[in-house]
Amino acid sequence: MGFEAVKLSSLSSSTKSILSRATAKPSLSNLLPLSSLAPRSSHLNRTHFAFRSIKPPPRPVAPAAPCGFGPLSRSKRSFRGGVVGSVRKSEEEWQAVLSPEQFRILRRKGTEYPGTGEYDKFFEEGVYNCAGCGTPLYRSTTKFNSSCGWPAFYEGLPGAINCTPDPDGMRTEITCAACGGHLGHVFKGEGFPTPTDERHCVNSISLKFVRANSYPSQ
Ligand SMILES: [Zn+2]
């Protein structure tokens, strides 16, 4: 695959040979192949550069991508309190720290019944963190009343939310970029009078609200 070619050729063959042989007992027979690989190394590097000059290397295989933001969101540290994909737990570990309903929605991509969520009609000032890993996801200033039955936000904190098209192409799932927890879906172009005309339709149970005055004053 092209991506593999880039990865492999990022280290010269000589370097890899040296690395792979670092633990081997030095001997003439171990060292000999290094010089015999030198021509292949330069050939590979030429191929590498030619490949990159034709087209940029493809992105790593990752179905989820940052939602609705510019270059800032591509940074792996573009939001406070979390790094993309930094929170990894086994299913058993998630079950141990989440309630059954949180597990059903965050880890099994479930949906809470409309109009029942804790934050559906809740408009206090603060930040909504991921209920799974605690990463800040939304500011209360981006929350609006969509009357859809679930909390609605017009944008997430930069880089905090990943978007993944559903397999049927009908909707776009939103997940916590740090832990992959399912939040809900994002809809665009519905005509809401918000700066983005996006509606992040989020399950209340996927969120944990923290009041603005809960943070230490700066
Ligand atoms: Zn999370």
UniProtKB/TrEMBL annotation:
EC numbers on record: 1.8.4.12
Catalytic activity: L-methionyl-[protein] + [thioredoxin]-disulfide + H2O = L-methionyl-(R)-S-oxide-[protein] + [thioredoxin]-dithiol
GO MF terms, alphabetically ordered: metal ion binding; peptide-methionine (R)-S-oxide reductase activity
Chain ranges of the MsrB domain: 91-212
Cofactor, free-text remark: Binds 1 zinc ion per subunit.
InterPro entries for the chain: Met_Sox_Rdtase_MsrB, Met_Sox_Rdtase_MsrB_dom, Mss4-like_sf
Keyword vocabulary terms for this entry: Electron transport, Metal-binding, Oxidoreductase, Redox-active center, Transport, Zinc
Coiled-coil blocks: none
Cited Pfam families: SelR
Cofactor dependence: Zn(2+)
Keyword rRNA-binding: no
UniProt record, GO biological process: protein repair; response to oxidative stress
Domain of life according to the entry: Eukaryota
NCBIfam families listed in its UniProt record: peptide-methionine (R)-S-oxide reductase MsrB
Similarity field: Belongs to the MsrB Met sulfoxide reductase family.
UniProt xrefs under PANTHER family: PEPTIDE METHIONINE SULFOXIDE REDUCTASE 2
Function: Catalyzes the reduction of methionine sulfoxide (MetSO) to methionine in proteins. Plays a protective role against oxidative stress by restoring activity to proteins that have been inactivated by methionine oxidation. MSRB family specifically reduces the MetSO R-enantiomer.
Name this polypeptide is given: Peptide-methionine (R)-S-oxide reductase
